[in-house]
Amino acid sequence: MEITETYRRNISIDRLSELPDSVLCYILSFLPTQKSVATSILSRRWRYLWTDVPNLYFNNENQGTIDRVLSLYNVRNIITFRLSDRIDCDDYQIGTWITFAIERNVQNLDIWRQSADVFLPRSLFTSKTLVDLRLHCCGEFPNIGSAVSLPLLKKLRLIFIRGHEFLPHLLSGCPVLEELVLYLSFEYRSFTISSPTIKTLVIDIYSDIRKDPDEMYYTGYSLEIDTPAIVYLQLFDSANYHIKFGSVASLTEASVYIQDYRNDFLYSRSVVEFIERLRNVRCLNLDLSHRAENIHSVFAARTISFRNVTKLEMTSDCRFLPKLLENANNLEILILREVC
């Protein structure tokens, strides 16, 4: 078949370069910054196009490379700034990059620094633009004093950050926070999460009590949750001796995993009282598979009503099932993972 001259001209056209800069920058915003910068070799037009991309994703670059990128960067309003734990640099330098992002009005900040003591600048806790903040293994909270104001922050994720005594103060400076995710190593005696706006709450509490439950027996450790607007709760707990849950009228879904290393009656009673507070949920995922003998005995002595539950997922032996089904008139879906 003869190829016409018009067809030859059409296939030689660079359609991508016909797009406006704003569209090209939007496309580049989905790439890691290293790959975005690499497009600068394509042509004269592309040479500095990456400097106007609103997202910065650093994965395995070294300190010198990141400094050069930031020195050429033009964007005054960063959408997302992300650093992975593969970055080769000192911990203090990460703090200067966080400051750079805050000064550029960053909206989403994601810092992952495995087993390190990152310098967290105080300006991080007074950002007027942050919407989503994620800190993974970034050492310890600084003494932020009274200066906490994050008026736009809606999502907060703290993964194994030390200095949890500052968290209540931090939450008090987040007036529109809707989602809180906490992964905690157990190093406190009592812990309170209080916020009138949180709708999604995920808590994973890791304790060394898992290593030797016979030697580590804590009776003073407690968790108190006061989140009246909560809709979704996910709790993995192996540490707290007492769990207190405030108003849960808006809660519709809960996923709870309790590890009873103590095998203690008072602790078991606290667990059952906590589960009773979940009676209004529609979807319940309950894992009582670990050493739950005393929890079962407390269950057996109580009348527990789950009249709103339509879906129940349970990991346990069958002893718990009759009690949970006794007053679950609206149940439609039951998933049982039996533990022998």
From TrEMBL:
Name listed for the protein in its UniProt record: F-box domain-containing protein
InterPro entries: F-box-like_dom_sf (IPR036047), F-box_AtFBL13-like (IPR053781), F-box_dom (IPR001810), FBL13/AtMIF1-like (IPR050232), LRR_FXL15/At3g58940/PEG3-like (IPR055411)
Domain of life: Eukaryota
Lineage summary: Eukaryota, Viridiplantae, Streptophyta, Embryophyta, Tracheophyta
PROSITE patterns (UniProt xref): FBOX
Domain spans labelled F-box: 13-61
